[in-house]
Design a protein that fits this description.
By secondary structure, the protein is α/β, with parallel strands linked by helices. Helix content is 41%, strand content 12%. It has 3 domains: 2-130, Rossmann fold (3-Layer(aba) Sandwich); 153-323, TIM Barrel (Alpha-Beta Barrel); 344-549, no CATH class. The protein has helices spanning 2-9, 28-35, 52-65, 76-80, 82-85, 98-108, 190-194, 203-217, 233-246, 258-263, 268-273, 288-293, 300-312, 330-344, 365-373, 394-397, 410-422, 434-454, 461-471, 479-494, 510-519, 524-534, and strands spanning 43-46, 71-74, 91-93, 120-124, 127-130, 173-175, 178-179, 199-200, 221-224, 251-256, 276-284, 316-323, 356-357, 374-376, 391-393, 401-403, 497-499. It has a 6-stranded parallel sheet with strand order 6-9-10-11-12-13. β12 (316-323), α14 and β13 form a beta-alpha-beta unit. The protein starts with a helix and ends in a 15-residue tail after the last helix.
């Protein structure tokens, strides 16, 4: 967006400052302090749903300090629920924002009426007004390369979390060869944002951006973040051939679907030669009921065939999962873990496959239907993130767990707690003081043992969550349900509990999984966790408990 504005206005005619609140882990006051060091003509905020509350707080503070400076919101969240953003903003740029934002800034500068700009929302007489819908860009090659010079890239290139390159490690740059997706998955914002239309950049344009990243920043790894990079099989073939002809040495991964891999199987070896390391498939669930409920439009047969084709071509099969989707229950958790182990595990020991949590993002069909499908556990927008348990399906809440061992094995309990770290269950946030982290660990050990003893085949998951809420000192009204759902997921995957409706015996795998974890003990994530638990001192900055964005 900044690069577009520079080109439209001319670098000499516009000054742009960027504050990276998320990447730099800045609090609201820190962002406001930086934003008010100069008298800017407008403040522009873009944010995910999970950061909406912080963005609103920043906007409200800026409006009090600079009441005459326009505040403009944009991005997916504000575009899909402008009525939620407008109490904190003067205007919202809806959807694809390049042309709209440039026109709005000109209008705010006196070159017209902002209310006549297509593709915005604003308030008038207490009501939300939407202007005429702006057509999508016809030529994506008209978009300039990102203005990375405005960013401090160091936080993005640290060897942690989402910044690390799949398979080979190291920093990576994002690339968007296309915009849009023709599918209509219930949980996805893309249909509402891009109107189910797909547009492509030229292969030459994408390669030129890759060359620039290599020459200016020395980084040759890339993650294609468009919705389905293999959807255009002919485009991918041309891209790979042109990339090979360019002589650039790159590593890259992309997102796609199982059926597109199958449809375009003949170009997989070419992709490998062009530097592709692997393709990430949104498996989401191996439960047919769940796949049908989310309107995924792919089958387990297609998934297995796509994984086989990737391996055959020398590619790494990558995936995403989405726990607590409608239709999932204790039996489906067990079956899914064994199925994923068969798909992916080359170790002699079984592993756990957990993924992210199903999230009710606004603007999606899942958001609208969630109250009928289960319990919405989100307290506010902060909880609408895939690392937070914000939804539990009735299919799970009404299931009745039965333990398969008289006493919870210590190895099983240890695996569950370690897995809660792994999936970043919120009470184990490593940014909190170590003393609180240790208390949470001890408290969850106690709750886990309590939960296992209560799995006697007489109470549902929902009943156990409500009982836990009464017995333990829990302030959050949803934490009992959250904990029982996470514990049920982990214990069911390990075979330590099963559904009372499942007449078949199952084999517990906790010992094997414990050995798997033991073999990976020196993973940097676990070493960091152990170091945090053992430290007595901690930074005063983290004692405040301030929500950071």
């Amino acid at each position: 967006m900044s690069a577009w504005l520079r080109r439209e206005f001319g670098p000499a005619n516009i000054e742009i400052g960027v504050i990276e609140g998320h990447a730099r882990n800045l609090g609201v006051e820190e962002i406001v302090r930086e934003a008010t060091r100069k008298d800017w003509d407008a403040y522009l905020l873009s944010y995910w749903t999970a950061f909406a509350m912080q963005a609103y707080a920043v906007s409200d503070r800026l409006k009090r300090l600079r009441p005459n400076t326009p505040i403009v919101h944009g991005g997916v969240h504000a575009s899909l629920v402008p009525e939620d953003a407008l109490p904190h903003a003067d205007y919202v740029v809806l959807g694809e924002g390049e042309i709209t934002l440039a026109e709005l800034l000109r209008a705010l500068g006196g070159e017209g009426d902002p209310r006549r700009v297509r593709g915005i929302a604003y308030r008038e007489n207490g009501s939300v007004r939407l202007t005429e819908t702006r057509p999508l860009l016809e030529n994506l090659d008209d978009t300039p390369f990102p203005a990375y010079d405005l960013l401090d890239l160091e936080p993005y290139f640290r060897q942690v979390g989402e910044n690390i390159m799949h398979v080979v490690g190291g920093p990576r740059f994002p690339l968007y060869p296309s915009r849009g997706c023709p599918f209509d998955c219930a949980y996805c914002c893309s249909p509402a944002m891009w109107r189910r239309k797909v547009r492509w950049r030229s292969p030459a344009g994408v390669i030129a951006e890759m060359r620039r990243c290599i020459e200016e920043y020395g980084i040759s790894s890339f993650h294609f973040w468009d919705d389905n990079s293999m959807l255009g099989g002919t485009w991918m073939e041309h891209f790979c051939r042109e990339l090979l002809d360019s002589g650039l040495k790159t590593n890259w991964v992309a997102l796609t679907r199982a059926e597109t891999i199958i449809k375009h199987r003949e170009i997989l070896p070419l992709m490998r030669r062009a530097g592709c390391l692997g393709l990430e498939i949104g498996i989401e669930s191996t439960s047919e009921k769940a796949l049908e409920a989310m309107d995924k439009g792919q089958t387990l047969v297609e998934i297995e065939e796509a994984l086989r084709l990737q391996r055959q071509a020398g590619l790494h099969a990558l995936y995403t999962l989405m726990a607590f989707s409608p239709g999932e229950d204790l039996t489906s958790f067990w079956v899914q873990n064994r199925t994923m182990d068969r798909y992916f595990n080359g170790s002699r020991f079984p592993a756990l496959y957990l993924g992210q949590f199903a999230t009710t993002y606004p603007g999606t069909r899942f958001f609208r239907e969630a109250p009928r499908e289960g319990m919405v556990l989100a307290r506010d927008w902060n909880d609408h993130h895939h690392d937070t348990v914000n939804f539990a399906p009735f299919s799970l809440l009404r299931d009745v767990p039965v333990r398969t061992r008289r006493i919870l094995p210590w190895s099983g309990a240890a695996i569950c707690l370690a897995a809660m770290f792994r999936i970043r269950y919120e009470v184990f946030d490593l940014e909190q003081p170590p003393s609180r982290l240790r208390r949470n660990l001890a408290g969850h050990w106690k709750r886990l043992r309590w939960f296992y003893r209560r799995c006697d085949g007489t109470k549902t998951i929902a009943d156990l969550g409500e009982e836990m809420q009464r017995i333990f000192p829990i302030e959050d009204r949803f934490e009992g349900i959250r904990f029982c759902c996470v514990a049920a997921l982990l214990l069911a995957c390990l075979g330590l509990i099963k559904s009372a409706n499942n007449p078949h015996s199952i084999r517990a795998i906790h010992r094997g999984v414990f050995l798997y974890y033991l073999a990976n003990l020196f993973n940097p994530h676990y070493l960091k966790t152990l170091g945090r638990l053992g430290r007595r001192a901690f930074s005063p900055r983290t004692e405040t408990g301030e929500t950071r964005c």
